[in-house]
Amino acid sequence: MLTKAPFVNNELYYDLEEDWDIIDCDFRRVHRVSLRDAIIDENSTWPLFTSQLQSLGSESLLYYYVSIRSERDPVKIRKFNSAERKIYLDWKKKHSELKIQDEKSQKLYEFERNVRVNNFLDALRKSSESKGFGLITEKR
Fold it and tell me: At 24, phi and psi to the nearest 5?
């Protein structure tokens, strides 16, 4: 069973698409089933898949990747060999780029929302002024 949590601080350290071949290899070795065949099998279910995924042991390749990607101890990171360092840095780079994109998307959403709110308030102000109500007097 995966003893190193695939989640640390709500961050997932494997990707089903990116790690498909690794997971498929582990499934063949541990469960004696190919993921490609399991997809076609009408008896396969998501709960069964997730149960089998969680039951992969510490000897699995996925565990190895998750343990490298989730490492936070600088001393251990400095001791990584070149292959482990590549795994660690590739994951870190990919996910830092995704976080930046998420932050940009959030800022853009907030800006667009503020523009829509201001446009609505302007329209409401003009409408109330044209009707002589003068309900809204200051712009936000």
Answer: -60, -40
User: For the whole prediction, is pTM greater than 0.85?
Assistant: no
Token representation of residue 28: 């063949």
Q: Based on the domain organization, do 19 and 49 belong to the same domain?
A: yes
Contact predicate 24/35, CB 8 Å: yes
CA-CA distances (angstroms) from residue 82 to 13, 34, 86, 91, 94? 19, 30, 6, 14, 18
pLDDT tens digits for 39-58?
A: 777 777 888 888 888 888 88
CB distance 43 to 73 below 8 Å: no
Residues 6+ apart with CB under 8 A from 22: 14, 61, 62, 65
The residue segments making up the domain with residue 24 are 7-70
